[in-house]
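User: Working on a comparison across species. This one is Histidine triad nucleotide-binding protein from Rubrobacter taiwanensis. Can you predict its structure so I can line it up against the others?
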Amino acid sequence: MAEKTLFQKIMDGELDGDIVYEDEQCVVLRDINPQAPTHVLVVPRKPIPSLNDLTEEDEALVGHLFVVAKKIAAAEGLDGGYRTVFNCGPDANQTVPHIHLHVLGGRRMGWPPG
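Assistant: Here's the predicted structure for Histidine triad nucleotide-binding protein from Rubrobacter taiwanensis:
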């Protein structure tokens, strides 16, 4: 059995996390190293290591993550806009091998990112 990820440990109550929302399919946590005034992570309960590991059966789950992101952005008052980001692999700075959708807002975003 693979070692639990940081996110799995938080979802299992083994580690503390600032959970702002949860349902049967995902949890939303505040990022511990925020890059914007609002920076939350939408994390599926299913442990999928990276976007490259997604399968067709994950389509509805990934769509659900975006619907939850929209709800959280509204709840956080991000009326002026927000950014959603998936990082995939070390070159994209994915640091936890469990997909998670970043939701960032509360400040003007630059382009291009990175």
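For your comparison, note: The two ends are 35 Å apart (CA to CA).

User: Helpful, thanks.
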